[in-house]
Amino acid sequence: MKIDERVEQLVRDALHWAVKRQPAEFDEALKAFSDESARRSALELLVAISAFVSTDICGGKPSPEQIQELAVEVAEAEAWSSATSPEVEAFLGAALTGRPLSGVLPAGSPVILAFVVAASLLSAGPKPAGEWWFNYLDKVEAAIEAAG
């Protein structure tokens, strides 16, 4: 997957506020995704990030039980957002199997949910002591681009 540099920076900006759990700033950052093309590119990147990091956390492709556990953890950790455990589970299930998100989640929620899930997974993901989530994101994005 080739990552659009313009969208990548916008995604990083919004992820920053989601990781910090700052809803007002997060909502403001989401306004940068005003056109369908930017939203679609961001969603594709966030789905890839979430699938990669959840696989990394679980040490391989997560089982349905592991997806359910991750969903509960994300929903609890991100109580500031409107993300529910069933929504996170549906999102991760679709992301990990390559299924389209339409029909899996309510219209309008996939982009916001994708940011919340990716931010939560990145901040909780396996990192050496002292490494920040954005350093981990650099590695994740490099792996996503290398995979094609």
Q: Overview of this structure, please?
A:
70% of the residues lie in helices and 0% in strands. The longest helix has 23 residues. It is mainly α and 148 residues long. It is built from seven helices and no strands.
List keywords for this structure.
148 residues; mainly alpha; 7 helices; 70% helix
Sheet with the most strands, sense and barrel status: none
**Which spans of ≥5 residues are poorly predicted at pLDDT below 50?**
none
End-to-end span in angstroms?
4 Å
Measured as a percent range, the helix fraction is 55-70%
Strand content: under 5%
- Inertia-based shape: globular
Q: Please trace the helix and strand order, writing H or E for each element.
A: HHHHHHH
Structural class: mainly alpha
> Average pLDDT, to the nearest integer?
92
Radius of gyration: 14 Å
Count of helical segments? 7
Oligomer: single chain
Q: How many distinct beta strands?
A: 0
List the helices and strands and how they pair.
Blueprint (H helix, E strand, L loop, with lengths): L4 H15 L3 H8 L5 H23 L5 H14 L7 H13 L12 H15 L8 H15 L1
Helix pairs in contact: 1-2, 1-3, 1-6, 3-5, 3-6, 3-7, 4-5, 5-6, 6-7
Brief characterization of the structure:
By secondary structure, the chain is mostly helical.
